[in-house]
């Protein structure tokens, strides 16, 4: 049989395209991946929601509180925060890259309940819920002092309140602390008010942002918190990458040494697998953590396992005396269900971990599921395409290309 050079050319172009894409864009893809708290350093705190005045802690209340915390994190300038509801009354917040932990703790845990009260400060006339969303702004007053302006949803309600207490002070409280007590000099009919609290420019800005973020639906009690230094995070990342590189290199050597040409094809598909997983993490903005790296390396093992199952089936068919093209077709078909079942059961286990696990366990399960789906594509689809091109080119005529000795043929 003549060697079909066209198939070899297509095979070579595919391999070159894969390796060139990885070499040219791999570093940029890796840089775009968001690193988690344990790899970048930062701050983590676990809160317990405390009901007040007979309030019930429901899943909706917890979700609303998590959303309020997320809005507050914008004030800190943190990208990709991890906020997760745990159990029936707990919320975990992970902020990678946070440098000022005291400020983060203050902004997150502060109830920030704004109230406008009667002159004696006892009764509440209006509160933060009466404010228009996003209407609080930092501004400059008539005397050049920093102020905060707010706008009310119901201008008529505010107008009636200012009319009733005309000429009297209306103390403004943030939580239980009085921050200002402006005197109502005229009826305010447009629903806009000015808060003077002896602010600095920065304090006025933070106060406005905190009001826009909204008050927390419940009180939060800090159960525990800890910080990870950025240097420790970088060291963890380097050690993990080094260990993973050594492990993957050993796998490459084993596959080529034991399976010969199919092993070389497996190396190409594993490189594709690693690249596609990182690309998926980058596009979906997945936060990569140490458990995520562990799941990524475990996914390499799953991808290798799929290749091994298929190649062993092909070797068995060759030992039965079948031709190499026939062995490829039969071995691929026989191995498919085994690979599919193994992947499905692992995905189910990972889904259970995600449903019942905490944040770090969930990160592991997400990375594992992503890796399994991509490994199924690369180890089954891509590997079969490359192997079929090689076999149909008639270049692989001898069983030795598949790691099968001539003396083994017909023994089964």
Automatic annotation (TrEMBL):
Keywords: Cell membrane, Membrane, Protein transport, Translocation, Transmembrane, Transmembrane helix, Transport. The chain crosses the membrane at residues 243-259, 264-284, 290-314, 335-356, 368-391. It is found in: Cell membrane. The keyword Iron does not apply. Residues 219-388 form the Protein export membrane protein SecD/SecF C-terminal domain. Part of the Sec protein translocase complex. Interacts with the SecYEG preprotein conducting channel. SecDF uses the proton motive force (PMF) to complete protein translocation after the ATP-dependent function of SecA. NCBIfam families: 2A0604s01 (TIGR00916), secD (TIGR01129). This is Protein translocase subunit SecD. It comes from Melghirimyces algeriensis. The lineage of its organism: Bacteria, Bacillati, Bacillota, Bacilli, Bacillales. The gene is secD.
